[in-house]
Structures are given as C-alpha cells and as structure tokens.
Amino acid sequence: MYRISELAERVGLSRTTLLYYEKIGLIKGKRLENSYRMYSDKDLQRLKLIQQLQAGGLTLKECQACLDAKIDRELLQGRLKTLDDEIAQKQRSRDLLAALLGEGDTKAWHTEAGKSAPDAHLEWLIKQGFNEKEALRLKWLSKNMNEHDQYMADFMHVFNALDRWGPGSEIDTLRALGAVPFKPENILEIGCGRGIATTVLAQNTDAKITALDNETTALARMMERATQAGVADRIETVCASMTDIPLEKGQFDLIWAEGSAYVMGVNNALKQWRSLLSGNGVLVLSDMVWSVESPNPAIKEFLAGEYPDLTTAGVRIEQAKAAGYAVLDTFTMSKEAWDAITRRWASACLNSKQACRIRRH
Ligand SMILES: C[S@@+](CC[C@H](N)C(=O)[O-])C[C@H]1O[C@@H](n2cnc3c(N)ncnc32)[C@H](O)[C@@H]1O
To answer: Mutate which of 260, 307, 333 to test ligand 1's pocket (most atoms within 8 Å of Cβ)?
Structure first.
C-alpha cells in the first residue's frame, strides 16, 4: 500500500492530480482510521496504464472508458493511425540525424529524400562537400554515403567494359531523327556518354555536333569512335554539367539526350534546356516510363527507390507542353534498345570479379 505522496512520486504526478483522478473514479484510495489515504498496487498499475494510453493520444475520459472495457473501436483505430504516422515521421527524422552523422545504412533516407525533396537533397549533398558530379552519382547510383567510393569503383569497373551506357539502338536513334521536320545544322548532345548516338547522328546529318558530358573518359572514347567513323571533324566536346551548360543560348536547332535527362530530372531538363534552342528548335529525349497501367507492386516498390521520378509517357508529354514545347512525336523504343543494355550489362557483370558486390548493393 502507498500513501498519496509515495504514489505521486512513483508515477511522477502531483498530489493534486491524483486527488482529481480519485474524484473522477480512476483510482480508489482507502481512508485509514488515522485519516491517511492509502492506495494499492492495482491503483499504481491503473495509473501506469493511463499514462501509456495518454501518451498514445487518448483523453482522460477515453482512458477511463478503455479501463472500464468500454472500447470505442473506431476512435482507437483513428488514434492508432495517427500514432503510426507519427512513428513513421519520427523514423524519418531519426534516419536524417543518422545520415547527418554518417551512421548506418543511409540508402533508405536518400531514397525518401530524393523522392520528397529532390532539390533540397541534392543541395544538402553538395553542402556535405561532394561536387555536383559526385552528389548526382550518390543520389542516383550508390545512395549510401558510407560505401559510395567502393560502389562507384565497382560501377565504373563494369561500365568501362561497355560503350552504350543507356538503353538505345541505332534503329531507335534514326527513328527519332526521322521525326525531326528539318535537316539539323547545329546539334547539342547532352550526356553523350561514349558517343554511340553521337556517331549515328554525325553519319546521318551534315550538322556540327557539340557533345557534352561531365565524364572526361567518356568524351575521349566518344572522339575515338568518331575518328574511326571518319566524322570527328564535325564534333566538338564540352566537359560540363548538364545542369549548368556553359553555351550561348538560342544557338542549337536540335538537342539530343538519350537516357540522360533523368540525371537532373526530366521536368527540370525540359525547362532549363529550352533556352539553348533556336526559334523552331527541337529537343529529342528518351526516358524510362511505365508501359503498363498497373505495375507489379514489387517492381513498383523497387523502382520507387531507384527512380523515384518514374512516371508515364502521358505525364512527360504534359510536362513538355507546360514547359512550352509542342510535342511532335513519341514512341516506345524497340525491345532491342532495352536488350542492348541489359544483356551487355549482365555479361559485363559476369566478366567482372567485382560483380557480386554490385549485385549485393
Ligand atoms: C545513362 S548514361 C547515357 C549515355 C549515352 N547517352 C548512352 O546512351 O550511352 C548518362 C550520361 O550522362 C552523363 N552525365 C551524368 N551526369 C551528368 C551531368 N551532371 N552533366 C553532364 N553529363 C552527365 C554520364 O556521364 C553518362 O554519360
């Protein structure tokens, strides 16, 4: 048995609060002959339960109803939902703090931040001391600040064996070029990689081509390919970021971006690159979009982490219109375009000792 002051100390409540609880019938003290009130273990336990229920967002009246087994299921379900939301919110805050301290697996946090606040997330990575190229790679590829360097070393090891760094094929490049309603004279290719499309564009137009990428080794390989194909004299390289292109506005009649606009977000790319086009200039880009109405939930969940901005062709068309473009044509790239990268990537992985590490990531 406890005196009221002892009980108050055990549960961290004031004497006045306990007297109030007694008045409304939540606890029941026994008055002794010496007029002291004494409380049982049962009162202590009821108080502890009440405190837990209150922490779950219930009012005193609702706590009382629960203890009297008069449970309002709907009300409790509502409180449960609120609690779940609060816990998820707290978990996100915890992940952020852990990420700021460089602790634990930061993949989940990067995935979430990349989805809910992509620009702020990139800005934060840059403030951490990564340059923009590293920050974009961390954001899109490794998503783990602790293992980023090793991941990138593995990634480049596999990709070094490939010339094509994104889905595509010569047939698809030519099909898109065929939809351009004039003979281009001045092409800017953004994210040209090792120049697979660059060579095709050079061989099938008389245009001068500016090939931009932020990877010097890719540009060097692109020039090698162009030299072999005998078209190098019409190609100029620019090593720069697609987010801040150091070229005069309004000078290109065709901008080409195969599998690269996603790096800065297709919608951002549509808006920012438009000023580089001349009056009736045309932008051609490829992007991964949903081709089915109801994607498999497991695939959807996986891709929500890998490409949070993944959407449908319809949404991309609307974004293009909103950015001031008239959409001339869209098409689904051939199966060969996709196989070209997946098959080669898989075989490059198998040929690489580092492959198992990449698969684990
Ligand atoms: C998926 S690859 C596609 C490459 C090429 N278009 C192809 O289909 O093989 C994306 C390309 O964008 C380049 N890239 C990534 N971030 C970039 C940036 N911030 N500025 C310019 N190029 C970037 C990469 O180096 C890479 O070559």
So the answer is: 260
Q: What is the mean pLDDT of residues 115-125?
A: 82
Output the CA 176–ligand 1 centroid distance in Å: 19
Q: Are 40 and 135 part of one and the same domain?
A: no
CATH number of the domain within which 32 lies: 1.10.1660.10
For residue 356, what pLDDT is reported?
A: 45
Look at ligand 1, atom 5, and give the residue with the nearest C-alpha.
193
Q: Does residue 59 lie in a domain region? A: yes
Number of structural domains (the chain) is 3
Instruction: Give me the DSSP letters along 231-276.
Output: -GGGEEEEE--TTS--S-TT-EEEEEESS-GGGT-HHHHHHHHGGG
- The yes-or-no verdict on residue 263 having pLDDT over 50 is yes
Final residue in a domain of this structure, among 24, 50, 71: 71
Q: Is the CB of 254 under 6 A from ligand 1?
A: no
For the record, the structure tokens of 73 come out as: 């299921």
Residues 210 and 262 in one domain: yes
Does ligand 1 lie within 6 Å of residue 188's CB atom?
A: no
| Residues 6 or more apart in contact with residue 27 via CB below 8 angstroms | 18, 21, 39, 43, 46, 47
Q: Percent of the chain, pLDDT > 90?
A: 57
Ligand 1 pocket test: pick from 131, 136, 165, 276 the residue with the most ligand atoms within 8 Å of its Cβ.
165
192 pocket-lining for ligand 1 (C-beta < 6 Å): yes
In the predicted model, what is the mean pLDDT of residues 321-328?
A: 97
One domain, residues 153 and 175: no
